[in-house]
Amino acid sequence: MGEHRSAEEHLARVDSVMGRLIRDVGPCTLTPQPRRPLFESLVRAIAYQQLHAQAAESILRRLIALWPGQRFPSPEQLLAIPEGQLRATGLSRAKIAALRDLAEKTLDGTVPAKQVLARMDDQSVIERLTVVRGIGQWTVEMFLIFHLGRPDILPVTDFGVRNGFRIAYDLRKMPAPNRVRQHGERWKPYRTVAAWYLWRAVDRAKQDRNATADPRKKA
């Protein structure tokens, strides 16, 4: 508790709108998972692309079930399994190609060990991992936030971040990524926590809509 207090205080001090959002939402509960193996983290990131979390988790459960008794497949195992079995899990052909390229580049050292990435700066990590097919900047930004725990990542192309910015700052239209980037300069060096609060702004808006739509609330 209070792990992100310095970030919250800084954001509230430099941005009154963000300060109000922090007061409404409460303390940041973002908790990275640094112990998860790099290969697994990136496989999960690819699986989640353009899918709702529930759908992605269902695919991942079916994928892992292809190796009974194992927590997660190795790069060698993923390369050895027939494409038909991978397709049966719900993975698209594009994602299968991306996962196989990830496995190959993990084995040949193009994707370094997680300990090596941990010593690299944010931009270097992005440049190193985006050579893998299917891994773009957004995917690496999610990895930097949720697995390496980097404090100053603002994924401006993320729909949730942009939508949260629109909601929090009461904009009529969806902001362009560059507008979010420029505004976010004031949030440094805690832009990761700012992104987390923008995601929560979207969650709160959904909750409010659901409460309004619930007929029991109209009685």
Write structural notes for this entry.
61% of the residues lie in helices and 0% in strands. It contains 13 helices and no strands. By secondary structure, it is an all-alpha fold.
Summary tags:
2 domains; mainly alpha; Endonuclease Iii, domain 2; Endonuclease III, domain 1; about 220 residues
Whole-number count of domains: 2
The parts where pLDDT drops under 50 for at least 5 residues are: none
> Structural class of the helix and strand makeup?
mainly alpha
Describe the largest sheet.
none
Q: What is the rounded distance between the termini?
A: 38 Å
Number of helices: 13
**Share of helical residues:** 55-70%
Strand percent estimate: under 5%
The rough form would be described as globular
Class of the largest domain, according to the CATH hierarchy?
Mainly Alpha
Topology pattern, helix = H, strand = E: HHHHHHHHHHHHH
Mean pLDDT: 92
| CATH topology descriptor of the largest domain | Endonuclease III, domain 1
Architecture of the largest domain in CATH?
Orthogonal Bundle
The count of strands amounts to: 0
Radius of gyration: 19 Å
CATH superfamily name of the largest domain? Hypothetical protein, domain 2
